[in-house]
Amino acid sequence: MFSNMLIITAFIYILSGMSHIRPKVILYNPKAVFYTMPLALIALASYLDKNKYEVQIIDGRLEKDPLRKILDSCEGAACFAVSVLTGAPIKDALEMTNQVKKHFPELNAVWGGWHPSLFPDETLLETPINAVVKGQGEIAFEKILEAIASNQSFQGIAGVSYKDKATGEIVHNPERTMIDINNFPAFNYDYIPVNAYEKLSGRNQLDYIASQGCRFRCNFCADPFMYKRGWYGYAPARIADELETLWNKYHFEHVHFQDETFFTIGSRVEAIAEEFIKRKFRFSWFATMRADQGSRLPDEVFAKCKESGLERVMIGLESGSQRMIDWMKKDIKISQVYDCAEKCLKHGISINFSVIIGFPGETEADMDETIRVVTELRKMNPEFRVSIFYFKPYPGNEIADALIADGYQMPQGINEWAEFDYVVKGSPWIPINKFKEIENYKFYQRLAWSKPSFLKKPIQSFAQWRIKNKNYFFPFERLLVELIIDRQKLS
Ligand code: B12
Ligand code: SF4
Known about the structure:
By secondary structure, the chain is of the alpha/beta class. The protein folds into 2 domains: 2-172, Cobalamin-binding domain (Rossmann fold); 203-393 and 422-430, TIM Barrel. The protein has helices at 2-19, 39-47, 66-74, 88-103, 114-118, 120-126, 138-149, 194-201, 223-227, 236-250, 266-278, 291-296, 299-307, 322-327, 334-347, 364-380, 398-405, 413-419, 432-448, 457-469, 476-490, and strands at residues 24-29, 54-59, 77-83, 108-112, 131-133, 160-163, 170-172, 205-208, 211-213, 231-233, 254-257, 284-288, 310-318, 350-357, 384-390. Strands 2-1-3-4-5-6-7 form a 7-stranded mixed β-sheet, sandwiched between helices. A 6-stranded parallel β-sheet has the order 8-11-12-13-14-15. The protein has a two-stranded antiparallel ribbon with strand order 9-10. Helix 16 (364-380) links the parallel strand 14 and strand 15 (384-390). It is globular and about 70 Å long. The protein starts with a helix and ends with a helix. The site of cobalamin has 37 residues, from helix 2, strand 3, helix 4, strand 4 and helix 5.
């Protein structure tokens, strides 16, 4: 009698345990050179019900042997899902997915994020994955997991393209309309080892995103394609509540807002700053600002932002030539850039300007104008830094489409996209002499307007003279610095 009872109890125990077995979902972030937190995967993980799914995030940038970890984790899993940006991350995503599919052919593999959203057909055709999620991922991914759990196909799940299991054909379900992110739960950073990112990035900072999308139409950017010019931002109190909870846990000294356009609504920014001040937050913060938004933002809001810890903003200047700015549909005026810079100067806020040179049709006069404007901005404050990039067409925008129509050869297929490198030296649209001049300018502007010191003064004056006269004859300062950097790399 007693042994029967024991068996029944054990049986009930096993059954109740089984009812708690949750499908395992493995989310992978491919290797990359920078160490921002994998916010896309945190967004997906946080949206899924913890009682229903056992979610694990694996970041290729943190693991010594990511493949081993993935294969161990995929044992018995319901889905292996990867977030993929265009370029090098594709290579790692592909290698890991191929291995997963080799070891677990029946396991559903899903890719989402910017690259698969731009190229769903190619991605499905040339990889062993089962489905692609396009655009905002939270709901579509949950629906995929529900379909897997009930052994259904992905038919009809908005925002998903998939390979039909029976025919192998690619099926595109209708697009999913982006919804307000205020409907989604707070990001659960417990899914990642927050301290490990701090160590790698060298700064005790938290990556956080307070909005999704962008309302603008710049024709070199993939955002209008991805989010169809939609934008949603968290309510100010929510941002403050979440950051307060996170600060009490992690004690970061800086928050890096990863939003495309943080300053979209001036009154919202003001309310965010007021919340930070009211709660006496002790961290500093960084965010992106469009020059038109900054020039419209009242002085007292700049002052509140500064008081609340705003340290630096990132402004996409793109070009100093108004003709080029208009051509790229940036919808800003150079006067707004200066206006914005003046306000930041007044309130002690630093700026990173980002500039792109070498657009198709850009003349040398346009390039000279960019250099002139950059020089003016650099002179205003050593803390106004400028990064100059060379234009390279990347997918999902009007410029790329026009170039393709004109016969420009973009990478063909997933393997060529994996080799695609955004950070290039030069552009087919820049004459070689101009390229050399810009490379010299990039070096000397840093020297000429870095923080002055008594010892640096003569070298700085000489650098300023070189820039003014476009005289880069025998650039010994540059050669010396490059030699030291090369030596350091070798040692
Ligand atoms: C942080 C960041 C990075 C990080 C990487 C982030 C990471 N995954 O580890 C670093 C610094 C490495 C990086 C590098 C670059 N980046 Co970047 N980056 C960003 C940034 C600012 C934030 C990304 C983010 O976390 N967003 C927050 C999450 C919640 O949104 P999301 O990524 O869109 O994710 C949602 C959906 O896409 C989807 N989703 C995403 N992944 C997945 C996966 C699955 C399985 C599913 C179902 C859904 C899904 O669901 C998510 C929730 O809704 C974005 C701009 C932005 N604000 O999004 C640019 C952005 C993604 N980067 C971009 C670019 C151009 C670059 C660089 C080229 C910059 C440069 N000049 O070097 C490099 C290139 C990368 C490379 N090829 O090596 C472009 C897009 C490029 C592209 N086609 O892939 C963006 C959009 C900026 C822009 N407007 O141009 N970047
Ligand atoms: S460049 Fe910036 S402002 Fe322009 S569309 Fe892209 S995200 Fe929006």
